[in-house]
Design goal:
The protein has 611 residues and is α+β, with helices and mostly antiparallel strands. Helix content is 31%, strand content 25%.
């Protein structure tokens, strides 16, 4: 009796607080396996539908995480087996229970990035949708998680989940669990404050403490600089935002935003790739406002059972791309020429890439389930019918920022971002395309301006006038962004003893495309000369001028034939300063550029002398 009472007293508070409990351990980490137990208490439905997610917030393709679940079994809390059926590849139905169901399974995972799960002898890097099953009817229930690290491993848990005194981690509901990646291993952890807000970098790498400290200074500058755009930080749970960073040769390069943390992975080391890590941090941290709180209605509530489609990713991702790069420049982490190179890349794409004619920014956004970490067995024609919403959105942000600054002195895109955050402070007030247009009108004080921007450049496919807009800041848009030699339009080609084989669709409007050549065709001679290596082809092209006609002998699906190819210049554009182009920079242009690109930090930036 006493014994029973003790059990009840110990167990009851846990059950009373969290209807869903997870336990994870790693007895076979060397072979990339974790053992997971999930307990669902207070089950009212006769059949408990247990699922593995098919999609993950922030990564828009379907991933079928159930493929890495094995040895699935269900029991009651006393250990009596329960009946399990499998109505779909990602669902298990558990019946015969008396109100509590314990589910156990083995999870395999060997890809550390923002989407999947990785378990090995050095760490467990877990994206919850790829890791934890969940059950219909329990989406709103509080969750507790305990982690049993391998004995003697020295591993600790880093996550945005709330720690509870007894070693468990908690989330108020399933969405918040799914949004909280876990890095479990041996880390370097460094904290800092900007005003009242607390931040920490949790770093798993093989580099030096100096490299870690340098990345912390960069992140400190980024957090302070991006606060300046919005005027304040969001209210992070427990007052803390965490950068989870893995720079290891066996992880996959990625960055993924979360509400109060980000997962950043890179396969190189910080000695050579610190600026990549800072770039990822600048992008992902901006998401703690834009997309994790300023949230499109199309992504709420997030559906873990299907692909989620959003026509607003040009704003959610593209504007974040723009501000990530801008924050690096404003904070002094990147020089002007690397900022202009990034902007030139986006502008070049929207002015010259064939995909620009296929759809507007909204429909490009809606393609995300097919392009964001999507895998397809059949060939796709993305190069000719798509421009990334990251790219077209970045170009739009640049153009709209310059247009606001030129037309409404003293105002900027920052005012639109702040207005959006005022009107849509968190996910319970998500926005639509109409809301975006309305808030742009409010931020600029001009409904006509907002209407024209949306009609021509967002609902329409018309590019903005980048040449005129960049000129306000004394920046020149020039031809010649690509390599200074004849351009063929091959996306991917391979050389062998038999010639050059086209391995991907050719670019619409390019010399190869206009010559009728496409994927699978092999060019065996150029004006009678074979080119079995890239160097040989370069030598042949070097003897020609742009506009020259070359006779090609080609093996095609329809047999061998001869076609004419007319050499063209690469379509890319670049952005240079008026000074470097020998044009006069007026005081007005210099002041415009300074107002645009100088620091907006409210709190002082750290000294970056060693960056
Ligand atoms: Zn992003």
């Amino acid at each position: 009796m006493r014994c029973w009472l003790a059990i009840v007293l110990l167990a009851w508070p846990l059950l009373a607080q969290e209807a869903v409990r997870y336990e994870i351990r790693f007895p076979n980490a060397a072979h990339h396996e974790a053992e997971i137990r999930a307990t669902f208490a207070g089950v009212r439905q006769p059949v408990l539908e247990v699922l593995m997610s098919r999609s993950s917030p922030g990564r828009y393709a379907l991933h079928e995480f159930a493929k890495n679940v094995s040895s699935f079994r269900a029991s009651d809390p006393q250990g009596h087996a329960l009946d399990v059926s499998r109505p779909s590849p990602y669902q298990w139905n558990v019946s015969g229970h008396k109100g509590a169901v314990v589910v156990e399974y083995t999870l395999f995972g060997d890809r550390a990035d923002g989407t999947y799960a990785a378990i090995d002898s050095t760490h467990a890097h877990l994206n919850p949708p790829a890791t934890f099953v969940w059950a219909h009817g329990f989406e709103g229930s509080p969750v507790a998680l305990t982690v049993a690290v391998p004995q003697g491993s020295g591993w600790t848990v880093a996550t945005q989940l709330t720690p509870r005194g007894d070693g468990a981690w908690t989330a108020p509901n399933m969405d918040r669990l799914m949004d909280a990646p876990l890095e479990i291993g041996r880390h370097t952890e460094i904290s800092w404050k900007v005003g009242e807000a607390s931040f920490r970098l949790v770093l798993h790498h093989r580099g030096t403490d100096e490299e870690a400290a340098a990345l912390v200074r960069a992140c400190e500058a980024i957090t302070a600089e991006e606060e300046g755009v919005f005027g304040a930080f969001p209210n992070y749970d427990d007052g803390l935002y965490t950068f989870l960073v893995d720079y290891l040769p066996y992880v996959s390069g990625d960055g993924m935003e979360h509400r109060d943390s980000t997962s950043i992975t890179g396969a190189r080391d910080l000695r050579t790739s610190a600026s990549d890590a800072a770039g990822a941090a600048a992008h992902e941290f901006f998401h703690s406002w834009n997309v994790k709180r300023i949230r499109p209605r199309s992504l709420e509530p997030f559906d873990y059972e299907r692909a989620n489609m959003s026509g607003e990713l040009w704003f959610a991702e593209g504007f974040t791309n723009y501000y990530g790069t801008l924050a690096l420049k404003r904070a002094g982490l990147e020089p002007l020429d690397s900022f202009t190179r990034s902007m030139a890349g986006a502008v070049s794409e929207v002015l010259t890439a064939p995909g620009r004619l296929a759809a507007n920014a909204i429909d490009m956004s809606r393609q995300a389930p097919f392009v964001d970490a999507a895998v397809s067995l059949d060939p796709v024609n993305t190069v000719n019918n798509f421009i990334s919403y990251y790219t077209c959105g970045q170009a739009l942000a640049l153009g709209i920022d310059l247009a606001i600054r030129a037309r409404f002195p003293g105002r900027s895109l920052d005012d639109w971002m702040r207005q959006m955050w005022r009107e849509h402070p968190d996910i319970d007030k998500p926005y639509t395309l109409d809301d975006l247009e309305r808030s742009l009108a409010t931020a600029t004080g001009s409904r006509e301006f907002a209407a024209e921007i949306f009609r021509r450049h967002i609902y329409g496919k018309e590019p903005m006038d980048y040449e005129a807009l960049l000129a306000h800041a004394g920046l020149l848009l020039q031809k010649g962004g690509g390599r200074n030699r004849a351009w063929l339009g091959a996306q991917w080609a391979g050389f062998s003893n038999r010639g050059m084989t086209l391995n991907a669709p050719t670019l619409r409007g390019s010399p190869l495309y206009d010559a009728g050549l496409d994927r699978g065709d092999r060019i065996v001679a150029w004006d009678g000369h074979p080119a079995k290596t890239q160097a040989k082809l370069d030598a042949i092209l070097a003897r020609h001028r742009l506009g020259d006609k070359i006779r090609l002998r080609v093996e095609t699906r329809a047999g061998e034939k001869e076609v004419d190819l007319i050499l063209a210049a690469p379509p890319g554009l670049r952005v240079v300063t008026y000074e470097s182009a020998g044009r006069p920079l007026t005081p007005g242009m210099a002041a415009f550029r300074e107002a645009w690109l100088s620091s907006k930090a409210i709190h002082p930036l750290p000294k970056l002398s060693r960056w």
